[in-house]
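Predict structure. Chain length: 138.
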Amino acid sequence: YMEIKCGTLDWFIDELKENQVFVFGSNLAGKHGGGAAKNALKFGAEWGKADGMQGRSYGIPTVSHDIQSMLTVQRIKIYVDRFISYATQHPELEFLVTEIGCGLAHYEPSDIAPLFEKALYLENVYLPQRFIECLKVL
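Prediction complete.
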């Protein structure tokens, strides 16, 4: 079974079960050089691909092409909605969501968690504890 260690900004997932997908925040250039995105490389994240399924990982862009500026919450919401739709269509998979947007993009969980409100009710989507805590307040 996978080992999850709760960090301050992320889950550190060392391995996945066969049906699990690692969901990470990416940049629009698909340069997976740090944080959860770098970790996603070992789960099949593709260099140069910003969003969607990539091996056993799923990218959600939160940062610009030049990695200098964060995307707006409204823009991130487009990608999160696309992810939720994908997860809904693939109930055979379990999606392990990291604290996307809370690292390089510098958002707080309270900024990003509301985008995942619909995912809270999906049995195959596992949200970070800090996102769940924010959503319980809504």
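Summary: The helical segments are 35-40, 73-89, 109-112, 129-137.
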